[in-house]
Amino acid sequence: xxxxxxxxxxxxLSFTALAQQVGQPTLKPGFDVNSIDRSANPCSxxxxxxxxxxxxxxxxPPDQAAxxxxxxxxxxxRAVLKDILETSMAKKNIPSGEQKIADYYAACMDExxxxxxxxxxxxxxxxxxxxIAEKGALIEEAxxxxxxxxxxxxxFGSTQDYKNSSEVIGDLDQGGLxxxxxxxxxxxxxxxxxxxxxxxxxxxxxxxxxxxxSEKAELQAKAVxxxxxxxxxxxxxxxxxxxxxKTYHRMDVRQVAQLTPSVDWxxxxxxxxxxKIENLNVSVPxxxxxxxxxxxxxxxxxxxxxxxxxxxxxSADFLPSAFVNENFDFYGKTLxxxxxxxARWKRCVQATDSxxxxxxxxxYVELTFGKEGKDRTLRMVHEIENAMExxxxxxxxxxxxxxxxxxxxxxxxxxxxxxxxxWKTYDGLAIRRDDPLGxxxxxxxxxxxxxLAKIGKPVDMNxxxxxxxxxxxxYNPLQNNINFPAGILQxxxxxxxxxxxxxxxxxxxxxxxELTHGFDDQGRQFDGKGNLSDWWTEQDAKEFKERAxxxxxxxxxxxxxxxxxxxxxxxxxxxxxxxGGLRLAYMALMEDLAxxxxxxxxxxxxxxxxxxxxxxxxxxxxxxxxxRLRTLTDPHSPGRYRVNxxxxxxxxxxxxxxCSAGQPMVRENACRVW
Length: 674
Prior knowledge:
The protein is an alpha+beta fold. It has helices spanning about 45-55, 70-90, 95-110, 110-115, 125-130, 140-145, 190-210, 215-230, 255-260, 265-270, 285-295, 300-315, 320-335, 345-355, 355-370, 370-395, 400-410, 435-455, 500-515, 540-555, 570-595, 605-615, 625-635, 640-645, 650-655; strands spanning about 10, 65-70, 155-160, 165-175, 250, 280, 415-420, 475, 480-485, 560, 565, 620. It folds into 2 domains: about 45-80 and about 355-655, Collagenase (Catalytic Domain) (3-Layer(aba) Sandwich); about 140-315, Neutral endopeptidase, domain 2 (Orthogonal Bundle), CATH 1.10.1380. A 4-stranded mixed β-sheet has the order 1-8-9-7, with helices on one face. A 4-stranded mixed β-sheet has the order 3-4-6-5. A two-stranded antiparallel sheet has the order 2-12. α2 crosses α3 and α16 packs across α19 (about 500-515). The two termini are about 30 Å apart. The relative contact order is 0.15.
């Protein structure tokens, strides 16, 4: 499990794929003038103008919660992965790495064998849980389950030390919840109450599938809900976790023991297989205190129910159809609004990419991405970096001292493009063609061991935290680098058949977005070496917060779905990055076009095509349930506001489309940080 609070991404994406079937949405991935709704006024609603025809032609498919240009590209990538896996399955005498992905995928696809085995693969661990005789043994079982990837009680892993980024230390964090985040347990609106009821019903059904009577299953479900609600009381919400100062508390083991005396931490760390730990980060000390209270107040039988259901949840992808369908019924239908379970092959491609990302990713890169693509992207990255340097130098609100420190940090940013320089081989990970559940759990444990082994060692600056086929990108503040997997360096983000204006509006804005994350409300708190450090003067920090506050207020006024507003504080970093990134890409394009005479294409100027390139990467449809879920948990705004929110702040857009004061895409008090 990645320490997600450290990575700021262009988008949060699920693996949403769609088979190319009759009557299903178009899969044309790139920029398309036919997607434009010319009946709309670009100065009134630029998102509708850019995407209106695409939206009308692309309803959400029944097996999806959302369908967007991201998803179209992800589907194309997924089709490539499927071909790789099916080709590998049919081979004989292949290299061990390729054999691993072939066997993993083949085992996952054998639904008939999985159904015939029933719950037998679960039984050894379920018996261990059932045999727990006293509370002292709870942690021993939690250790086993955590190593297998189960989200029980709390999270333990590794992280770079926020104040000494060259050091990797242990990290204790909140965890153990089954609902998306802590506020789901406490909100009192009708939708939240309904969701909790459905969650308890889901838990009850899981226990019934395991053989409990209806009466016992109901008691077990309520016990799990009680434990999770108790743990949630000590957890931070998503907005609070955006402040790195609130999740950094370096302690020695003795101090940790004072928070949670029921746990023998020295024994825990040894049993987990961690290197010797004397100091570590405790992300949320109040959560560890609440864990202690929950341990003391909860019966042993209730804890057994809790461990059982979380073990089943981490195993769900490789269990008989009844478990898979029940898991989808709550986490798919209820939470996201998807109507149908994805095809088996899609789920197995996703699982392979998740558990063996660099083995499968290496094959993907060989087929889709070469040195030319890497060099081409790097050239654009350097152009955007040059634009940001000029932007910083021209700021009228920042003092010279802080400007210099900002420039120093910018010049230390490193770039990772496409794929890792050195590929992981997953030595020691056993993959068997007849053991899908074992493969998944062993892969989880292999990755867990790998993370713990980093503690006390130098930071690997070349490591990637996304697989190469992923349609996404991220900035890592602890390493001060920006990362662009090969999966996103394709249409609609970059298309070598199109003009520069569209590409700058697509991948150029993505590059600028990630670069701006180094200077958003979170990223600005880290210096050029990745250390949590206050390098701002008091006056400059005040000026920054005022400008960031404008963005917070702007986006908080947007309605996501029904009466639910966008959370301006939760989405502040991503909104600031969208606004800064689009402006930087525009500056770079204008630098590139300086002195050139460029004719209109499809009736649009380069400036107009730049903004259309930006608008069209966010074309999407979404179920109301998915929109609600993302609004409550996702630090990214809905696509409509990623488009309209940014362009309404840019005089350059208003000039490009001859917008007038008073029109919706012309904000009277435009927001700007960078």
